[in-house]
Amino acid sequence: MPDLHRESFVMDGHIHVMTRELLMKTDIGQRYPDGTFDLPRAKEGGVDAMFFTVYTPEHYYPGRFETKNTFRVVNLALDQIRMNNQMIELALTASDIERINKKGKMAAFLDLEGGFDLNGDINLLRALYRLGVRSLQLPAHNTTTGFIDACSDISYWGGINDLGKKIIAEMNSLGMVINIAHASNEAIIQTAEASKHPVIYSHGGFYNIVNHPRCITDEAAKAVASKGGVIGIQFGSLFNNPKYYAWNKQSAPAITSVPKVTEPSFLLPQSAAQTIEDVDKQLALEVPLNFRGTLPDEYWMHIDQLAKVIDYGVTLVGEDYIALGSDFDGGPELPHEIRDISDYPQMTIAMLKLGYSDQRIKKILGLNWLRVIREVTGG
């Protein structure tokens, strides 16, 4: 591990937790033989803090189980953090993160990916805040909701609607970090404009490098940066390696017909065919949520390509607005040099090879996330 990595504050903007713990009754304090994240390996990787991301995927939306799942995975996250208190503690502010690190522990900054409620009930948002959630993704993963358009779904609102603006104002008032990853281009720009505080794009790539709908446009990236926000670079080939993306599209099964979608799923009749237990069994087949395919050598991204994406972002918006959001245990096709979170020092090595100064590397490794958290939470 480079000395620079060891002495730096390292924070990741997007690490999936609790899905496997919920469905497989496992413990993040134990070393897993598979997947890409657990606390022992995170410690080995020199990680000091993380957006501790609990996930409510699309599986739970047709039956409108998104709220029930969200609250149970948040409660489970709190239980697991308490159970592993010798290694990790919950942080509500930047000062909490620093205090926890001084004790030699990792800090968990609780973040939600997926819909807390597809209709956008502000009372549920307030309840999540009281439980300790301090960061929340506005779009429900890849699904348009009752207040914001997702990048991979129908554009129903042309970005955000009045309810979306009320939710943004409420999150500003509470001191919650607004995460616009998975939002449509218009929704990202409008959210950055509507928010009084910096907003973040926790994990993704740049559309000018890979024209995947999940990647952020230059226009949207500049809008995020102009408000003091941060763009987290995800570690996967799909968002960062043009050669892989082209090969992936070419090798994907051909779709003979695509049904025309005119309404987002939150408006469709609720499915009564499944119980939440049925959905759990279906999702358990995909756990851990990691890439399981095989890649030909010529399409397997090396870390120097990921470093080029970081450099693109630095050139585009500046070193104060770029960070890392790995998506460990969330499915990315990781670079050749990274097997799991224990290999995090490879990111520092890659940036050193770019000729970056120590201070620039420290900002990207974690100080930029810490600054936004301090500005938003007020502490």
Description of the structure:
This protein has 379 residues and is an alpha/beta fold. The protein has a single domain, classed as TIM Barrel. It is built from 15 helices and nine strands. It has helices spanning 3-7, 19-24, 39-44, 66-83, 94-102, 122-131, 162-174, 185-194, 218-226, 237-240, 242-251, 276-284, 303-317, 345-353, 358-377, and strands at 11-16, 49-56, 88-91, 106-114, 135-137, 177-179, 199-204, 230-233, 322-324. Helix 5 (94-102) links the parallel strand 3 (88-91) and strand 4 (106-114). Helix 13 packs across helix 14. The longest helix is centred in the C-terminal third of the chain and has 20 residues, at 358-377. It starts with a helix and ends with a helix. The relative contact order is 0.17. The mean pLDDT is 94.
